[in-house]
Fold this sequence. Notes:
This protein is of the alpha+beta class and about 850 residues long.
Amino acid sequence: MKRGSRCLQASLLALGFVALSDGFSMASKLPTSRRTFEPFAALRAGTEGGGKRKQITIKELQEKMLKSPSKYSAMGTEPSRKKKATRRTRRRVESPKQQYLYASQRSAKQQAVAPAKKDIGKEEGENENENETVFTVDTRNPLLQAKEFGMVPATQHCDPLVDGLKPRLVGQIRISEEAGSGSFAYLVEKPAGWSILGSQASKSKKTTAKGTVTDTEESMPAVQEQRRRKTKTQVKLVDEDGNIDILEYSEEDILALLTPEELEEMKEDLGTDFQAPARSKRLAADLIMPPKDDDPDSSVRSHIKDEHRDLDEETLSNLRRIEGRKQRASEIATFAEAARPSVITWLKDVKAGEGVPIRGGNFWTAIAGACEVDDSGLVLLCPKANTESIFVEYAEYVTVVGNGGHLVPRSKVNRNAASSSNDVIKFEIVSKVRKGRGDDAIQTVRVLIPDKTSTCSSIVELCQKQFQDGIRGDPAGNPFDRRARRRLIHCESMSVSSLVFDETCEVETDMFPDDIAVLADRRNHLEYTTGSFLGRASLQQNEMTNAYREVNGAADGFPGWTVDRYDKWLLVQHDPKEPRGPLPSIHDGNTLGIYYIESSPDRSSMGASTNARARLLEGKPAPEFFPIVENGVKYVVNLDRDLSTGIFLDQRPQRAWLSRNCCVDTQLLNCFAHTGAFSVAAASTGASTVSIDLSKKWLDRLSTHLEANDIEFDERHDAIYGDCFDWLSRLAKRGEKYDIVILDPPSSSVGGRKKKRWSIKNDMDELVALAANLVKKGGLLWTTTNSASTHPIKFARLCQKGLDDAGIENAKLERIQPMPADFQTIGPQPVTNLVWRIP
């Protein structure tokens, strides 16, 4: 190395690493907003403010020092001045003398009851168990409970309900004489799950070299370390002529100047606080992988492989899988960037296809109708500069009222939006559903708001005041008891007029979305007509999915009668204590046969040891194993061998999330995997998977699923037969980490090597504690239960206890995933899906 470079390096090290050795931050003791130093100074007196200022880089500084090294000399640092506090700055004290609370806060604080933990608990009808921890659940204020788990109800948005369903341009109106984008406003029919700008997902994720990570990783030490290194520090350099250069550099810039030997010395000095820059290296996995012909190091790997020549091929294959996972491992979780679909982006593409290009992004605003992500139906899109040129004659909304009595708290936004007189606003009951629903009666209501700009959010408080109940599925009422995947509001019709031209546009949608239609379409006293799907029309027409539930028992008005579609065949489960129900699609030309089984439609009993089997009731028999399609991914099912077909249809939204958000660098651990359906959904995006299940019979079906999707069952995928408790401990000892760990255990069972009895209420916390340490920083832990007796808040507390036992702090309950629309229920949903973000 040249002497000038060594001089520069020494100067930079003297400058930067004085602070690096004390926390590895050059400005750790100074305010972040004033990281300005003056370490290099020559002839400072009299030149402080008289020289010219210029911003330079380290490379430019190196060239200057090599050219004129005498102009610069290291003189130390000068502390920055503290920013003077403004008069309006509130003084912070550790123990304030008085705490101010609003009335609503005082009421909420009085109602909130801390969870009471008992050493030994017993529920009614159950035997005492000394290992059981019982929590008393306060359900009076679920929003406070959500805050306790770190969940934000306002972020609980649904994904698109049906893959492939896109918006429709249904009307436009001229509002300006100017040519181009600002001349028209558009009426678009928006599906639920689409946003106006599509920025929700992109704002919540940051792109990394391998994919994206979420903003919740702001608090992660590894991410903070990376961002701190990239933080630019400014240094003032004054030469002998009084010229001032502003040098900007980060810690990464300085580390790049060091040799490997110097990095090792620094690591010894700073200990575990120091993390060297990532460097490419070959892991042990490469040494036992089959050699490549064009690899110069193939002889080395062949030599290592020769050391394992006594091992059988299966053991060697397992070693490759294990080492392959280590090779792909990273400290921070990696997911694909699945941006939420945007109505504006879609509209821009449509108009470009018509030869009328328009602007996109923030040029537009949604001023009426389905403006929020969860809402569906008509939305009025208008250029921001021309919103005063359009008038909403009326807007008509359809909503489902009946949320278990859970109301959305009043807010200033709602009060202002609902300021119209109730004498002007009209309510019409479309349908009422009460029979057999107990205290979960629901009614579909049409709300007409005339002569006023309104949105779907406008009618929430109006309906709550009118009917004394909330909007079904609204997370702002109760995020733990969501009885639909979104708040069920649909903008059905709208009329708008131009205030510049004599034009009016009036539009009405053709049909309700499935999740509203399943509750509103109650024609002919619940008697089906040929081809009527009672709210499953979009699923019937969806080419990407041909497996779903057509009739869901009592919730559809037919107790003890469920009908599932598997491509061309129907599987009927019937409780013989109840009368038989209808087969709505038997004569629609899309059904070849019907299988029938007398059994209780209990998801937890599927696959149990019993002699009950489905038998062909009518039509042609199905192949022994045949593929069905769900969200574009194939799964192989069987209808007449076991109680379980090989896939649980009520988990379709979770598999859809995996197929949208995983990527080639994502690693998934699927515990209690059954046939590995979750693994297949992730593998369809290129993710690597590990599936664990006690039953070899069921897990052997995983390879069949993968083969149906042309996915090779190679080193990227592993199937482990055994007890999940044992294997979670083994994987932890190996130091394995995963981006997503899924826990979907049965409610209760007896299994494993010790034939130990398992139950959710006794063992879920231990299971979570074992699994949580296998999740990468920023990764996800999925916890699921189908125990109807376990309240969602109680289940969340069990999971939280497991996280605490694992020593994981600040884990957040990020999402509660309700069941799909074709599995609508009476009362709370029978399956609870909680998604935790691990910091």
